Amino acid sequence: SFCFFSFRSSAKLIAPLGYLVSRQKHTLPDLPYDYGALEPHINAEIMQLHHSKHHATYVNNLNVAEEKYKEALAKGDVTAQVSLQPALKFNGGGHINHTIFWTNLSPNGGGEPKGELMEAIKRDFGSFANFKEKLTAVSVGVQGSGWGWLGYNKEHGRLQIAACANQDPLQGTTGLIPLLGIDVWEHAYYLQYKNVRPDYLKAIWNVINWENVSSRYAACKK
């Protein structure tokens, strides 16, 4: 959510405007592995299109929306600020979600997590198998496009499963801290799995980077 500033005092504008003027543009992060590294589970063509086209488009559109927002803020045009928020949410969410997603995957992934994360999964879901089944079911059940997530509820100190529509970012829309995201937009799997989303979701468990998920869990508990 975005803050609206009082225009009675120009002093209140200095900080946000200064930040926006000096802000670096968002850039497309490099993948930590080659496009073909996740084969046979996710093929190279999907990864290349997904990263270099889809994610890149979210980054470009986010930069455009932020530039327009900066102008609207400078003019005190609250109507324009409000009208830009869907674009900021969609493209900002797309950038946030995919930046997490690439690190959640690894050619050396799969298997089961260890240590504290595994203990938390057993505590909050009964067993790893039960957790896997629940996250898969939530991800299969997303209507249209969206994401399945394992998140951390800081207030209650527990793991939680959630689904988000479109590119809604998990933390910005639910308050849960994202640990593991599963992209169920068709562009994430259609070239390989056609319309059979459950087959893609069965395969993706072979490339989940549990080290990354575990380090995210450790970081949000601090």
UniProtKB/TrEMBL annotation:
Keywords: Manganese, Metal-binding, Mitochondrion, Nitration, Oxidoreductase. It comes from the Eukaryota. Coiled coil: none annotated. GO terms for cellular component: mitochondrial matrix. One of its GO terms (molecular function) is superoxide dismutase activity. Residues 113-216 form the Manganese/iron superoxide dismutase C-terminal domain. Its EC number is 1.15.1.1. It holds the Pfam family Sod_Fe_C. The keyword Metal-binding applies. The keyword Cytoplasm does not apply. Its cofactor is Mn(2+). Its main location: mitochondrion. Homotetramer. Destroys superoxide anion radicals which are normally produced within the cells and which are toxic to biological systems. This is Superoxide dismutase. It comes from Podilymbus podiceps (Pied-billed grebe). The gene is Sod2.
